[in-house]
Amino acid sequence: MPLLINLRHLDTRDQKLEGELSVVDLEFDDRDEMVLAHQPLCHKLEVQKLDDSLLVRGSLRLVLDCQCVRCLKPFEFTVKLDEWTCLVPLEGDDKAPIVSDSVDLTPYLREDILLSFPQHPLCKPGCGGLKKPDTEKKKTNGKDGTDEVPSPWAELDKLKPKN
Questions:
Q1: In 3D, which of 63, 77, 61, 81 has the Cα closest to residue 123?
Q2: Strand runs (DSSP E) across 50-138, as ranges?
Q3: Secondary structure letter of residue 133 according to DSSP
Q4: Which of 18, 19, 69, 119 has the smallest count of CB within 10 Å of its CB?
């Protein structure tokens, strides 16, 4: 169910909203397989009616299931907006739609949460990425005992005619 606030209730006093909003109600776009939301958005908000707008303040928290773009390891990333503030206009060109004396706050929450998603999620800041397979074979030179890495052209050099 979307996050609705009744404007008639705000005429007498400010309203406090606390709870969870499902991912289905947030209508996130699942185009990025590296960042997915499966858990609900936790919110603790206070809504105040001003002359021609609503002032919404509080905190938002959402846990995302991410995949590291370097090493492909899954990890969780928490979006925390502890001092979130939004001004919802009730008049003018950008006014919020009012249906049955209620305003839906969900689009405003969704917009700011999406802006806080990681663009290139990393499991840790210094992630080195996928481990490279050890394909280089070392052979020991019998003369001085040092390790030499064979040239990638060594096999082709054998095909050259000797003068």
A1: 77
A2: 53-67, 74-89, 98-99, 102-104
A3: P
A4: 119
Q: Residue ranges of the domains in the chain? A: 4-115
Q: What tens-digit pLDDT sequence spans the chain (163 residues)?
A: 788 998 888 888 899 999 999 988 888 877 788 899 999 999 999 999 988 899 999 999 999 999 999 999 999 999 999 999 999 998 988 889 989 889 999 999 999 999 999 998 999 888 888 777 765 555 555 555 566 677 778 787 788 777 6
Q: Distance between CA 53 and CA 40 in Å, rounded? A: 27
Q: Give the total residue count for the chain.
A: 163
d(CA 151, CA 157): 10
